[in-house]
Design a protein that fits this description.
The chain has 294 residues and is of the alpha/beta class. Helices cover 44% and strands 14% of the residues. It has one domain: Aldolase class I (TIM Barrel, Alpha-Beta Barrel), CATH 3.20.20.
Length: 294
C-alpha cells in the first residue's frame, strides 16, 4: 500500500512519535514474527514482536494510547485465526497441531482451544504496556475468556475493544499480503460474518457486550455504514469502525491515476464513517487527516 510499511521496532517508535505529534491519540499494533507455527507462539511470547514494540513505544511516549490487535492469523503457519485440525474425528487435537491439514483437505477451526491462546496473548500484550486489548479473531466466547484472563492477572482496568462485527470481506487483501496472513487453505467464512446478514451482526455485538466488551467495532467501514448506523442506534457503547486496507488502497490508486481529488475523497470517506455513528475510526489515513484538520 502506498505510504504504508512494515516497520522495525526502532522505526515504529519514530512513526508513533510522528503520529502523536500530529494529534493522533492512539495507534494499533500488528506483528509479523520471524517464525510461524501451529500454536501462534509469536502472538503470546513475552518477547514477541508486538510486545517489544509496545514496551519501546511506551518508554518514549507514555501518554500515547496503544491498542493491541489480538488475533492468531499472523502467527499461525496456516494463516487461520484459530487452532486447526483435520475434520476426521479419528484424529486427536494434539496430532492435528503437529500435522495441520493441507490444501484440499477438510478441516475444522477448534474454537475453545483457540480461546486459551487468545487469552494468553491478551495478558502478554497488557503486561507489555498495551492499553486497550482489541480481539479480532471472531472466535465464539473470546471476549469472556480474555476478560477473565485479564482479571485473573490483575489487569482488570485494561479495557477490551471487540471487533464485534467483523465481516468475511474481500477488502482485506492488501493487509493480508503485507502481513503474510492469508489462509493457506480454505477461507474464514466459518468464523467471520456473512456480509449479507445485518441481524447476525447485531446479535454478535450484543453477545460481546454481555461478555464484557467495553467498546465495539465494525470492520470494514465504508461498505458497512448501515451496520455502523444500526449499531449506533441500538448500543450505547463507544463505537469504532475500521477503514481497512482495501478501502485505503482504492482511494490511493484512483488518486494516483488522477481520477479523484485524494484529500477531498479521503476526508469525505472519513466523514461518512463518522456520520454513520462511529466515534472512533481506525484508518491508514490518520496522519494525513490530522494534518488537514490541524
Amino acid at each position: 500500500m502506498p505510504g504504508v510499511f512494515n516497520l522495525s521496532v526502532d522505526k515504529a517508535v519514530k512513526e508513533a512519535s510522528q503520529a502523536h505529534s500530529l494529534g493522533v491519540p492512539s495507534i494499533i499494533l500488528f506483528g509479523l514474527p520471524e517464525r510461524k507455527d501451529e500454536v501462534a507462539t509469536g502472538a503470546w511470547a513475552e518477547n514477541g514482536i508486538v510486545q517489544q514494540a509496545a514496551r519501546a513505544i511506551k518508554r518514549e511516549l507514555p501518554k500515547l494510547v496503544i491498542m493491541g490487535d489480538v488475533c492468531l492469523c499472523e502467527y499461525m503457519s496456516h494463516g487461520h485465526c484459530g487452532i486447526v485440525k483435520p475434520a476426521s474425528p479419528a484424529q486427536s487435537l494434539g496430532a492435528a497441531v503437529a500435522s495441520p491439514p493441507t490444501a484440499g483437505t477438510d478441516y475444522e477451526i477448534v474454537n475453545d482451544a483457540s480461546l486459551e491462546l487468545l487469552a494468553r496473548t491478551a495478558v502478554s500484550l497488557a503486561r507489555a504496556g498495551v492499553d486497550i486489548i482489541a480481539p479480532s479473531d471472531m472466535m465464539d466466547g473470546r471476549v469472556r475468556a480474555i476478560r477473565t484472563a485479564l482479571d485473573d492477572a490483575g489487569l482488570s482496568n485494561t479495557p477490551i475493544l471487540s471487533y464485534a462485527a467483523k465481516f468475511a470481506s474481500a477488502f482485506y487483501g492488501p493487509f493480508r499480503e503485507a502481513a503474510d496472513s492469508a489462509p493457506q487453505f480454505g477461507d474464514r467464512r466459518s468464523y467471520q460474518m456473512d456480509p449479507a446478514n445485518i441481524r447476525e451482526a447485531m446479535r454478535e455485538i450484543e453477545l460481546d457486550i454481555e461478555e464484557g466488551a467495553d467498546m465495539i467495532m465494525v470492520k470494514p467501514a465504508m461498505p458497512y455504514l448501515d451496520v455502523i448506523a444500526a449499531a449506533r442506534d441500538r448500543f450505547d457503547l463507544p463505537l469504532a469502525a475500521y477503514q481497512v486496507s482495501g478501502e485505503y488502497a482504492m482511494i490511493e490508486a484512483a488518486a494516483r491515476n488522477n481520477w479523484i481529488d485524494r484529500d477531498r475523497v479521503m476526508m469525505e470517506s472519513l466523514l461518512s464513517i463518522r456520520r454513520a455513528g462511529a466515534s472512533i475510526i481506525l484508518t491508514y489515513f490518520a496522519k494525513d487527516a490530522a494534518k488537514l484538520l490541524a
